[in-house]
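TL;DR need structure tokens for one chain.
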Amino acid sequence: MSSGERLGAVIGVVFAAVAACVFAATLTTEAEEASEPSAAELMDDLMWGRGPIGGPFELIDHKGMPRTDSDFRGKLLLVYFGYTYCPDICPTDLMAIGLTLDKLGSGGDAVQPLFITIDPERDTVEQLADYVPFFHPRLIGLTGKAAAVRRVAHAYKVYYKKVGRSGSEDYVMDHTGFIYLVDAKGQYLGFFPAGTSADRMAEFIRPRVASPLAR
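>> reply
TL;DR here they are.
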């Protein structure tokens, strides 16, 4: 075999190996996407209470500190999933959460609002640190590795998906928008639909902060 033939054979082997790796990676990506629950499945599970809702998490807050769900025991939680680049729905709901705390007065001290990003690629600690103070001084922003965010989002039956050009930062996140209420023991109580007013949320929460037993 000539040197040219040997080189051609080597290139062929390398190309085949690379092609196999790409094919395997494609299959893995497709398998991961296929395993993702659809928006309809998650919505049905949430509406009908199929399976547990909520649960433990390990994330990073907007000050760079590790946080777990157990850090917030003893307080009612208002948990919202969204992202800082959201053009309208997320800011509207976060403003409503902040107003709810204000309307509760001193009772608001028993409630901890949490904003969990579904866009950890762009929502870094620094990005969240600039963003969350606009809505309430007690709002805590949480981010983390994509897998950690996915786990907690799925635990709460949250659907989200990146929509936009591949490899570009010019994208939006398609996602469900509910405000979840969790009791002081970490148990899921229910949710408020997107667009729920601060008055309605305060009305529902007020009896639960008036008496520790109601939490």
